[in-house]
Structure formats: C-alpha cells, structure tokens
Amino acid sequence: MDEVIRQYFDWDAARPYLPDLARGFWVTIQIAILAEILCLVLGMLLAVSRQAGRGARSRAGRIGGALLRGFSVAYINFFRAVPALLVLLLMAGSFPFLPIPIVSDLTTFQIAFLGLGFVYAAYIAEVYRAGIESVDRGQTEAARSLGMGGGQAMRLIVLPQAVRRVLPPLMNDFIALTKDVALVSVLAVPDVVSVARDAQSITFNSSTLVVAALFYLAFTLPLIWLLDRVIAREKRRAGRGDIVTP
Amino acid sequence: MTTIRATGLVKRFGDNSVLNGVDLDVAEGEVVCVIGPSGSGKSTLLRCLNLLEIPTSGRVFIGDDEITADDAPVDALRRRVGMVFQSFNLFPHRTVLDNVALAPIAVLGVDKAAAHDRARALLGRVGLEDRAGEHPARLSGGQQQRVAIARALAMEPEAMLFDEVTSALDPELVKDVLGVMRSLAEGGMTMVVVTHEMGFAREVGDRVVFMDGGVIVEQGDPAQVLEAPRAERTKRFLSRVL
Q1: Which of A189, B87, B128, B151 is deepest in the core (most CB within 10 A)?
Q2: CB–CB of B151 and A146 under 8 A?
Q3: Are the beta carbons of B237 and B225 closer than 8 angstroms?
Q4: Residues of B in Cβ contact (< 8 Å) with A149
Q5: pTM for this structure?
Q6: Segment A101-132, tens digit of pLDDT
Q7: Segment B181-222, tens digit of pLDDT
Q8: Domain boundaries, given as residue ranges, for chain A
Q9: How far apart are CA A134 and CA A167, in angstroms?
Q10: Using the beta-carbon criterion (under 8 Å), do A145 and B74 form an inter-chain contact?
Q11: CB contact under 8 A, B85 and A138
C-alpha cells in the first residue's frame, strides 16, 4: 500500500522539481492566454464573415459575401475535423523549413500558442455564431430602419447582445483550451506537463505529474466556479428561477 | 408633394405571392391608414417601403429618390423614413436614453451631449423623460412602444411607418400609444399606419386603404371607406371587425 501511495504522493521525489514545475506552469498559462486572445479575435472575424453579404443587393457585395462565407465555413470545418495534436505537429515540424522569413523564425513557444489559437478559433466562431443567430431578427431590422449599415448594426446592436449570451460557453472553451495546452508538451515546449514527464522518466515516480495536476486544478477550479456564478447571474437577469416542484 | 411613392409592387416568397401589384402615393403631411385581414399584405407593403423587404418587382421612391434603384444609397434613404414595429424591437442592452440617442450619434455623427439633450426632449414628448436611465425590460409594453416612436423620431424622418404598433399591447396601454401618434399626425408628420384600430383610422387618418389578397381593393376618405364601403370584400371585412 505504501508503495502505491508513494508512486503518486512522494513529496521528496517531487520537491527538487518544484521550481521547474512552477516555471512550466507559467509557460502553460502564457500559452493559454495568448491562444485565448488569438482565438477570441479570430473566432469573431470568422463568425462575422460567416454572416457576410446576406441580403447584399449589389453584385459585388453578393460575390464578396459568398467568398468570405465560403472561406470561414471551410476554415471552421477543417479545424473542427482535424485533431489539435496533428495541427501542432504539422506546424512545428514544417515551419522551420519553410522559405518564408517570419514563419521559419517562429519559436516552438510561438507555434504552440498560434496552433492552439487557430484550432480553438473554429470552436469559438461557432459559439459566437450561436449567439449572433439567437439575437432576434427584429433587432437588426430596427437598427437598419434607423439608417445603420450592416456592419454598424452588427457591431452596435447584435454582437453586444450575442457575446453576453454566449459568455458561459466562451468561458467553458477557455477552460478546455487551458487543458489542451498540455498537448504542446510533444513540441518540446517546457510547459508544466512536459517538465513533469521529464522528471518522471528520471525518478520513475509520478508525483511530479500529480503536482502538475494540482497546478491545473488551482487554475481551472476558480474559473469553473466563476463560470457557475456567471450562469447564475444570467439566470437572475433573465428573471427565471428554477422550476419549483411542490 | 409626394413623400413616398410605390408603383407596381409585387412581392413573392417562393410560390406564395403576397403583393400583387400595389400602387401607393403618400403626400406630404398625409396620414394613410392601411387596413385589411391578416395575410392581406399590409405589413409586407410597409416593409417594402423602406426596403426591409426587397420587392420582387416594382419601384419605391422616397421624395425624388428611388430606394429600389440598383445603386441607391439605401442606408441614407432609410434614415429619412422612421419605422415602428409591432414587437417594439428596442435594444435591450442599452438604456432608454441610449436607445433614442444611439442612431443619431452612430449614423448622423451628432455630438453625444447634443444627442442626449435631444433624446431627453423626445422622451419628454412621449411622456417618458423620467425613465431615461432605465433598461427597456423595466418598461411596460406601451412605454416601450412610445420609446420606439421617440427613437424613430430622433433621426428627424420625413415620414413614419407604423406596423401594427398596438397589436401586442394590453388594451389599457393602447390609448397612450395612439395618443402619441395622434399628436404626431396633428404636428403634420407624414404617416403610413398599418392598423386594426378602426377608431384611429377614422379620426386621425386622411385616407384609408383597404387591402386584401395582396392588392388595394378600395381606398378613400376614412368616413366613406369605413361607413359606406363600395367593394363587397371591404364590406365583409368591416362587418367582421366593427
């Protein structure tokens, strides 16, 4: 029994690696936040592109809209269908050898957050889309009847309502993204999982991986708690309580 | 002087033909009330006038400018015609004051302070100055609809379109909204009013248009159309609603 416990909770085996693990987790958080910013922005562009040119009257508007829509649908479907791990391996394995100045100079750290950001942008775009489509058509009609252009109506009227509605699923995806940062350990990026695994392969003891899990819990549990609070607040704002069973 | 003119309007949704050739001239300062059974194409006609629906064929002019022209500056022309909807469509994420001031600021580039002053004045005109800081969800239906009227007026339109604006309201709230519309009409506003309020049509309308099956069946002086209709279809409709 002792041996079982020691395999996972051997403080003495983990202690020498604590500074490395902390540095590793800092790398994890940086990648998570940079990828999150990237996917929020890119996802928004994709979601708005996906609505582009609907009801455009000019020929140029219709063709341009169809091209934008086609591109964003292709992007979203590709990155939802292909494993994130494969995307990361593909980018990290090929970029250094491409004869393209900026791309070949990317560090594995940069490739890590770019790759995750690209993949998650596809999911985020779908979350935004659900929000955009949930806003009543009358909102756009009212905005347009006041003389706003399509872009203005989207920016001032539709998106603020859409984003507020999808805040919970957006936070959910941020939590999922943070956990998926563990994937970058295969690219030799010194994230917390990579550090913990290297230590484990030396000590044959899993306590460093347990410490990595604790780091994750310390970061994601408050996010989950915050998410629950946001959902509860939305519920209150909508004026709907739970259904009471007598 | 014509403010809004529609000629030969046809609107089809797939196989469903909603407008079958409608001509309508609205003179400056005129109040035209459009009545008719549901599904007669009243609302579609109204929505074609500011191009919320694109007519299958036919032309619409705002003043001298054709909004249905291929290269028409649609956004700029829409500003000249205000619209009020059955379902209010206030912006729920903005305060009442912002609802009224937003379009002047965003579309016309009016200075924020000036737009807010004007929005307060308009809210005063519809009797809601004290609710300026609240969100629309806190207002009753009648109050929301009066804010929607103020919002449309903030763009200083040449004409106003009203799409069954009292149909979603509790009966006791209808009066306030109609009162605001009446005072607008008395102020000389050009109005096209799709309505089921026959009393309003009779008292405030300069002309009543009766639609059925996507065409104008009969139109004329309210007293004549409502009390001595010529067409059989008008008689049948009026006998059911009056």
Answers
A1: B151
A2: yes
A3: no
A4: 75
A5: 0.87
A6: 999 999 999 999 999 999 999 999 999 999 99
A7: 999 999 999 999 999 999 999 999 999 999 999 999 999 999
A8: 14-240
A9: 13
A10: no
A11: yes
